[in-house]
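Can you please make up a protein's amino acid sequence together with its fold in token form to help me picture the idea?
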Amino acid sequence: MKIYHNTQIIDGKECIMLYVDYPSDYEFSFDLDKLKQNALDLSSKIRDYALKNFKNLTNDTTILILNGVALGTLLTAALINKFNVKAYDKLNTEQTQLEQSINQDNNNVENTSTDEKKETVTEEIETNLDSSTDSSTNTSSNIQNQVLKSTTKSEVTNTSSKATPTPASTPAPAPTPAPQVQSEQPKPAVTNEKMINLKLNSGQIISISLEDYVVGVVGAEMPASFNSEALKAQAVAARTYALKRTAYGATLSASTSNQVYKTDDQLRSLWAGSFNTYYNKVRNAVLATKGQYLTYNGNYIDALYFSTSNGRTENAENVWGNSFPYLVSVESPWDVGIPSYSGSKTVSMQEISDKIGATLTSSSQIEILERTQGNRVKTISICGKIFTGVQIRTMFNLKSADFDISASGSNIVFTTRGYGHGVGMSQYGANLMAKSGYDYKSILKHYYTGVEIKS
């Protein structure tokens, strides 16, 4: 683990930038006791570092950055005196993956979207949530989510929406009224010619223009064969994700830790003989939305996305525990019936027994207790032990937390609907909406409730 700091001037005020780089195994574990202990160990090391280096500081502002993701601000005195770790009691093993956020594996099309690889949520979110891609995921780790939850004063009230999106031929509906959000997230800045730092998979850190970065993300995260309006929606979501995470100067990762980014050479390898056609198509979609991003109450949103819905998207709190008024369950009927909608996974009762620490001998020992607003499993009982649908999905690598169960000899069959964490924009839903005549603004305002599109 590496902890270090420097100072930067932000909005005319000197801030302490506290960087914490911790091992990946602190985030991903099916052993909740170990995960909680890792979180406590992490918080203890942060506090020890602060006591050693900031003990004489009181009203100074500290910006906490975990593994390159800026989580929020807090007074240095609070960091020293009462760093709160109680939130770790409810750590969730879903992430993924935001962050999770946030990625899926669409191997049935030319391009590979990485939501499922990441979720293995984020995220997610993000995520602060702070979160897609799941990618997709857009998503951060649970430790990041919980530190943010315990050290910022942001309070968001969840709302629901049944608004029907408007086809491209008619004006998009006005944003749904929503409660005020108290947030310490950075205000959007002008994006023209913005440069960001990006860590490639090779480990090299490069400086790249935001728009060139978005081209590489859209090409990696969404099939280039999709409708141009869907690609535009993906571009705005990807740009928003990047702007939020780089607002305090953080370095983005080209891997599923943030959004997947592919270089021109990687896209050439991916698309082969279709490279020129697809590259121009993706770039045109990015340029058509240049500088555009999504806000809620004037702040960047966590623009999470995923592959395929089960007919509805999901409330963010049912995946990561944090609620956001723009990440609520909405209808997405366009996904139903496409190849990635249905799936199944057969798991032996012995494997389930080993994973849950109890002996499963019959499907009668499994009962789905409650479902979420998005019709995914909220809680399930197995041998008297209670799990969330997200935990079961992660534990057995299911495509979705919307599943039914049946017995097949000594095995349990999970029949799933949808693909991905389900929070935010459904990529296949966006594509089919576009094919039905909706423009990218209508798509975005359908999947992200009450947002504004700014530039």
Q: What stands out?
A: The two ends are 39 Å apart (CA to CA). The longest helix spans residues 32-54. Confidence is low (pLDDT under 50) at residues 82-164, 166-184. The chain has 13 helices and 19 strands.
